[in-house]
Amino acid sequence: MLGHGAGAGIDGPDLAAATEAAVGEGFSVALVEQPYRVAGRRSPAPAKRLDEAWVAVVEHLRANELAGLPLVVGGRSLGARVACRTVDEARAEAVLCLAFPLLPPRRNKPPQSRLPELEAVNVPVLIVQGESDRFGMPPEGPDRKVVKVRGDHGLKSDSDAIAAAVADWLGSLRLTAAPSR
Predict the structure, then answer these.
(1) How far apart are CA 76 and CA 84, in angstroms?
(2) Phi-psi region of 144 (alpha: psi -120 to 50; beta: other; left: phi over 0)
(3) If you write DSSP's letter for every residue of 83-123 in order, what string do you get?
(4) Residue in 43, 122, 126 with CA at minimum distance from that of residue 90
């Protein structure tokens, strides 16, 4: 289950590459458009509302199309943050982050790291990050792999590298059936 970034929908080249790689590894993929985008707004809702909408979709899919299946959540930028914050509630077995915005630019204020969102995740994480991403390069950590690819935060320069990283990582996961509630 993959979500989009703040400034675009689910049709970005990095999400397409990740989707293709996942399907190639035998996964089903649900691309999730946040309600603010569906309503035609460009600005994201507050984090709490984004997380609530995401969890509602997880619960719907777990009760229907994805019943009993292991779940990997993720997304690009904002979507990756939502997936990290909700991983426990989603009962996901892994998180895929494309272009995780570690240090967002802030005018006249010191940068505020989002590393705690990554460090709170207790399942395997893959971060695919453009080597010149202006939002910074997240560090590797326990059960957190970082793959640097050509490009910046848009991840538009090397779709093949994105797909290869995602396929390799997904192929290495040892997933189990979803626990019932």
Answers:
(1) 11
(2) beta
(3) HHHHHHHHT-SEEEEES--SS---TTS-----HHHHHT--S
(4) 122
Q: How far apart are CA 80 and CA 95, in angstroms?
A: 8
pLDDT tens per residue across span 145-175: 999 999 999 999 999 999 999 999 999 998 8
Per-position DSSP letters for 23-70, written without gaps between them: HHTT----EE--HHHHTT-SSPPPHHHHHHHHHHHHHHHHHTTTTT--
pTM passes above 0.90:
yes
**Contact yes or no for 66/28 (Cβ under 8 A):** yes
Nearest to 78 by CA among 166, 153, 3, 163: 3
Which of the 8 DSSP states describes residue 74? E
